[in-house]
């Protein structure tokens, strides 16, 4: 990988870059997907107006594993519920859904593309679940969908494991392979090295490379544009950074940065004022906080930080000691 150069400059326009809004899906982890129809319709209209390429509508979770009475409709994304929000989606924006390995009854719940408003299925898995992910990817590909593989928690995986995973996915029909910083633990230099490794396989197997970042160390935006600068071209974002724990790369930051004139920040700013601020005022919690920094820097799942915040604790030093003992 000698003579590797960044792709374009901070001032250049990259037509290959596509952005995906994951507000309903990653943001849904903050409120059990209890978004109103008004919120979802306004978000859809915002994304269309802002020039967003893909909108992720939520999960395709199994109702046998998750009680529908405890979650909003975007945990399951039934076709009738999606059509109530987007109609036939006559916009240029494509619609996506996430399907977790082991949590989705994909043969039952994912039908033919021609019968759905959805365009893409994003299959999420851990690195030891790649064969099961490929089974789902092949199924969705045959049904006519675009497909992504979101391999989670690669910050915990060895270089050899990552290389094996990329080779297996490269030989599958998947369209996009995502670099996912699940724990918000990666720094830009690490993201650069991983992006180049992913791109190596992407070029070999003709796959698009994407990035999905978390904001535990306030690096979600920085890591996203770092990956993009080396050639990643599918970039995930959420409005106001809403997402599990510390949240994700903020739409307003990313759209404000990208130089493609089709992207517009103004609809996002209006949506934040009208919908995201009331969501916070209603008690939905997300975004950078000290406990997420502590799990992120130790490359740990944020579940203990989420529990710490929900318990109303503020003894950060004691919490850091507890985490260090576990690490």
Note down, in words, how this protein is organized.
This protein has two domains: 18-281, Aldolase class I (TIM Barrel, Alpha-Beta Barrel); 290-326, no CATH class. It is globular, with a radius of gyration of 19 Å. Helix 2 runs antiparallel to helix 10 and helix 11 (290-297) packs parallel to helix 13 (316-326). It has 13 helices and eight strands. The protein is of the alpha/beta class and 327 residues long. Strand 3 (94-100), helix 4 and strand 4 (120-126) form a beta-alpha-beta unit. The model has no long low-confidence stretch (mean pLDDT 96).
Keywords:
327 residues; alpha/beta; TIM Barrel; 2 domains; 8-stranded parallel β-barrel; 41% helix
Total DSSP helices: 13
Secondary-structure-based class equals alpha/beta
Oligomer: single chain
Unreliable runs, pLDDT <50, ≥5 residues? Answer: none
What does the overall shape look like? globular
The radius of gyration over CA amounts to 19 Å
What CATH calls the topology of the largest domain is TIM Barrel
Distance between the termini: 33 Å
Order of helices and strands: EHHEHEHEHEHEHEHEHHHHH
Say how many strands there are. Answer: 8
For the largest sheet, list the strands in their spatial order: 1-2-3-4-5-6-7-8
CATH homologous superfamily classification of the largest domain: Aldolase class I
Q: What is the percentage of strand-forming residues?
A: 5-15%
> Helicity, in percent?
40-55%
Write the CATH architecture name of the largest domain: Alpha-Beta Barrel
Largest sheet: 8 strands, parallel, barrel
Please tell me the total number of domains: 2
């Amino acid at each position: 990988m000698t003579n590797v150069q960044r792709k374009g400059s901070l001032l250049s326009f990259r037509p290959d870059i596509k952005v995906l809004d994951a507000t309903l899906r990653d943001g849904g982890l903050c409120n059990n997907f209890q978004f109103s129809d008004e919120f979802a319709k306004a978000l859809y209209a915002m994304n269309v107006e802002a020039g967003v390429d893909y909108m992720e509508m939520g999960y395709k979770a199994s109702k046998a594993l998750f009680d529908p009475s405890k979650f909003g409709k975007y945990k399951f994304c039934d076709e009738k519920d999606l059509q109530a929000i987007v109609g036939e989606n006559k916009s240029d924006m494509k619609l996506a859904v996430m399907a977790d390995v082991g949590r989705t009854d994909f043969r039952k719940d994912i039908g033919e593309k021609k019968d759905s408003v959805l365009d893409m299925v994003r299959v999420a898995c851990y690195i030891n679940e790649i064969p099961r992910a490929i089974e789902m990817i092949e199924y969705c590909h045959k049904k006519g969908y675009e497909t992504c593989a979101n391999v989670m928690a690669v910050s915990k995986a060895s270089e050899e494991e990552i290389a094996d995973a990329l080779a297996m996915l490269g030989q599958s029909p998947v369209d996009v392979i995502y670099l996912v910083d699940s724990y918000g633990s990666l720094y830009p230099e690490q993201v650069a090295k991983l992006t180049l490794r992913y791109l190596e396989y992407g070029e070999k197997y003709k796959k698009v490379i994407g990035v999905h970042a978390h904001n535990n160390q306030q690096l979600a935006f920085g890591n996203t544009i770092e990956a993009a600068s080396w050639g990643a071209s599918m970039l995930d974002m959420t409005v106001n950074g809403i997402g599990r724990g510390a949240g994700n790369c903020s739409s307003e930051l990313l759209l404000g940065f990208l130089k493609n004139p089709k992207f517009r920040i103004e609809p996002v700013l209006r949506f934040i004022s009208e919908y995201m601020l009331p969501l916070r005022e209603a008690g939905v919690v997300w975004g950078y906080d000290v406990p997420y920094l502590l799990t992120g820097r130790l490359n740990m799942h944020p579940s203990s930080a989420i529990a710490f915040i929900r318990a109303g604790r503020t003894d950060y030093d004691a919490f850091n000691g507890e985490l260090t003992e576990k690490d």
